[in-house]
Structures are given as C-alpha cells and as structure tokens.
From TrEMBL, chain A:
<protein>
    <submittedName>
        <fullName>Uncharacterized protein</fullName>
    </submittedName>
</protein>
<feature type="compositionally biased region" description="Polar residues">
    <location>
        <begin position="149"/>
        <end position="168"/>
    </location>
</feature>
<feature type="compositionally biased region" description="Low complexity">
    <location>
        <begin position="95"/>
        <end position="119"/>
    </location>
</feature>
<feature type="region of interest" description="Disordered">
    <location>
        <begin position="76"/>
        <end position="177"/>
    </location>
</feature>
<feature type="compositionally biased region" description="Polar residues">
    <location>
        <begin position="120"/>
        <end position="138"/>
    </location>
</feature>
<feature type="compositionally biased region" description="Low complexity">
    <location>
        <begin position="276"/>
        <end position="307"/>
    </location>
</feature>
<feature type="region of interest" description="Disordered">
    <location>
        <begin position="269"/>
        <end position="317"/>
    </location>
</feature>
<feature type="compositionally biased region" description="Polar residues">
    <location>
        <begin position="76"/>
        <end position="91"/>
    </location>
</feature>
UniProtKB/TrEMBL annotation, chain B:
<dbReference type="InterPro" id="IPR014284">
    <property type="entry name" value="RNA_pol_sigma-70_dom"/>
</dbReference>
<protein>
    <submittedName>
        <fullName>SigE family RNA polymerase sigma factor</fullName>
    </submittedName>
</protein>
<dbReference type="InterPro" id="IPR013249">
    <property type="entry name" value="RNA_pol_sigma70_r4_t2"/>
</dbReference>
<keyword id="KW-0804">Transcription</keyword>
<dbReference type="Pfam" id="PF08281">
    <property type="entry name" value="Sigma70_r4_2"/>
</dbReference>
<keyword id="KW-0238">DNA-binding</keyword>
<dbReference type="InterPro" id="IPR036388">
    <property type="entry name" value="WH-like_DNA-bd_sf"/>
</dbReference>
<feature type="domain" description="RNA polymerase sigma-70 region 2">
    <location>
        <begin position="11"/>
        <end position="77"/>
    </location>
</feature>
<dbReference type="Pfam" id="PF04542">
    <property type="entry name" value="Sigma70_r2"/>
</dbReference>
Amino acid sequence: MSEDLERLLRDAFEASASRVTPHDLDTDRERDLRRVLAAPLPPERTTRRSLYVATAGLAAAAMVVGAVVVTHEPDSTAQLAGEPSTSSPSNEIGLPQLPSSQSSAPRTAPATPSRTATSVGGQSRPQPTRSAATSSGPTREASVPPPTSASSITGTSRPTAEQPTVASTAAPGSVSGPLAVPSEFVAQGEMSSIPMPPDLTYVVVRRSSGYVQIRVSNAMQLTRYLDNNTALGGWPRDAGGYHSPSSTMAASVPTAVDSTSEAGLFSLFVDTTDQPTSTASPTSGSSPSAVPPGSGSGDSTATDGPGSADGVSTPGS
Amino acid sequence: MAESEVDLAALYAAHHLSMVRLARLLVDDLASAEDVVQDAFLGLHRRQHQLRDPGAALGYIRQAVVNQSRSALRRRRTVRAHLRVAEPDIGPAADAELMLSEEHREVLQAVNRLPERQREVLILRFWSGLSETEIAETMGVSNGTVKSQASRAMKTLQQYLQEGRS
C-alpha cells in the first residue's frame, strides 16, 4: 500500500511538473535575468563591504588598545580633592612625606615645585615651592634655611599633589608646601592639607593626636597669608586664633618666637571650647588652646607649644 | 572570473526549468513560481562571494526556492485574510488539472490539504528525489524531523485518499 502511494505521488508530481514547459515561461524575464547573472558584481558593493570590514577592524583595534591601556594603568587618575592620602600612615600626621632617598639627608638639587590640589577652604592654586627664607635665627634643629636665589626655582619637574617638598638648602626637616592636617580633623570633614605661602618653609616641631605644631620661617608672612587668603576657608578669627565652624579644629595665630627673629610658631589643635556645628560661629570669648589632648598643660598659649617654654622643640625631644 | 566563483549563468541555464517546476509544485502558481526562482538566483548572485563551495550552489538555490515559496504562500494567506473582497484569488487556473488523470488529480488535491512542512517533505522526496539529509539541509531541520514529517504526511495522505474513495 505504501509503495503504491509512493509511486502514485511520484507520478502525480511528475505529471504536474511536466505541464510547465519552457514555452510557458516568461522569456523576457529569463533573458534579463541571464544578463544580470552574467554581469560581475557592482564594484561599489565590494568597496562598501571593504569599508565595513575596515571600520570593524578599526573599532576592534581601538577596543584592544583601550583594554591594554586600562589594564596597565588602572590607577592613573588623580587623587580626589580632600581625599586623605592612603599612602601616609596615621602616625605621620604633620610630618612631610619624604622619599626614602631623602629621609636621612637634605637634597642638594633644586626643589621641585609643588602644587596644592586641595586646601582648607577650597582654595586651590598651584604653588611653586622656593627654597628660600627671609632670615634665620641661630636656633636648634628648627633652623630656618637661608635665602636662596630665584634661579633655584624649577618649573619643569613633575608636580606632586599635596606633598610638601624639602627645601633644597634648608636644615634637615625643613619643608615647604601644604601642611598636612591631622587625621582626626580630616575625619570630621576638614581638608587634608592647608596651603602655605610659596616662600615659607617650616619644620614640624611637635605632633600628637589632633595636634601639630610647626616652626615657620616667617610668622608675619604666614599671618598675612592666612588673613588675606582663604587658606583656612574664611574661618572666624579672634584673639585666640582661627576656629573651624564645622569641626573642633582650630589654628593659632602665627607668633614670632622672639623679637630678633622672623621665625614663629603655628599650631593646629583641638578647640576644646567649641562644639562642631555647621552654622554656628565660635563664641567671641572662646580661647582655643594649643594644648594637645592629654598633655595636661592648660596654661599654655596658642602660640606656645605644649611642654616647652619657648615653644621650640624637636620631635622626639 | 575567479576560480572559486560560481558560473551563475550556466547554473541558471541548466537548472532554471527544474527550479520553476519545483516552485510551481510548492506554490501552485506559475507566475509566483517564476518570481521565487528569480529571487533565489538574484540572491545567490549578490552573495556569491560568501559561497565557499561552488558545488553547493545548486543546494543553495533549492533551499532559497523552498524558503521563498514558503514566504510567498505566507504573503498570499495574509493578502487573502485582509483583502478577501478586493484581491482576486491567486492560485491554480481552473483548467490547470484538466490535463491530469483523475488519479493524479485526486492525489495532488490531497497533498495540497497537508500542512506546509509535510507537503514540502513529500515534494522534495518524491519529485526532487532528495535523501533525508538533503531534505533536512534544504528545509533547515533535522533528519528526525524530516522522517517524522514524512511519516505523518504519508499516513494523513492515505487517510485523505481513502475518505475520497469511500
């Protein structure tokens, strides 16, 4: 039965198909189609295809190059403003970070200009560092470097963000550039560094938790700078110093060490009389204390370093 | 002409008529069959640089004819569904089967009642004489599908013929 049906199907299909003869076909259409098929492909089609292939190749190559660049330089972007540097340990607050090759001896090469990427109060402008100071008193370790000529300024070195630079001819530990803010204040929302005058050099004389005291080469210069610029973000100033309206951070008014020298002391400390509020201004009667937390010497002034009569002490002394 | 390219003019001269007949069996209309074959050859002409094996050109044409026939039937169904009044019926002429024997006419009418895929399998197998593998490649289905479709088609066809005779 199945074989009969198959045979029947073959015969029926053959009979139906054989009724289509060449005479039934459209000869004009057949002739035109033969001519089209015999002709080669239009050249523009091949060109367009080549263009597509080339475009795809370029796109693929660009993606490969991008992937290679991202792979090899994943962290090439600049550090965000106000972001604490992860490379500086917390116990090094206030101390300038020095390269390992510079930690033991001062550099003799010209100092590199440092640019302040972040600052208290949002002021940000490049600050080329000069290895110069106006004068120097015969003090101990915190000696101010002697003035140098302007030719020592170099502008071709790679700028380093938020890294104080070592004054080329200054005493060991004398640096210039932005002053690092203790991490306690950074945690309260303060910026990670305070810009300093370009010509000013300083030495960190004392540091502890929430406290840093530096000896600057020119106290008056720093005072003018703090008053005339927004280095401290326009903090209110009273007789006791500058008070941050948003944290317990306070800064002393730079004060000369003695009458014969331009050098002075400047401190960042916890204002124990002030409560951090976002809008309140410090009370006029509040007198910031320069005493580091836990030192117990409450009679010290803002300009005097804790535990030292003349305010000049060296780290570790 | 490059060695890898297909001599489409020669292919057309050799297989044009058989392809029109195949399409005619599938779409049941000579004009539509000619359209289908023309589109199949033009498609190969546009894509002949993509054809790796020149020996597969005939299979490509056959596959294109089957696919185009399926599309033509689908378009025809759509036109009939939406323009039933305005569109004249497209199909075999009234005297198309007058030259056929009664037996062949009865078989062809039963075949036309089959589902599309089953009808394609029967035509490719019993008129084109293709193997199951070739039918599978032409229709883009598996060998098992071809076998099952052919089995169902034969069973249904037998049922239709018995109903007609009784």
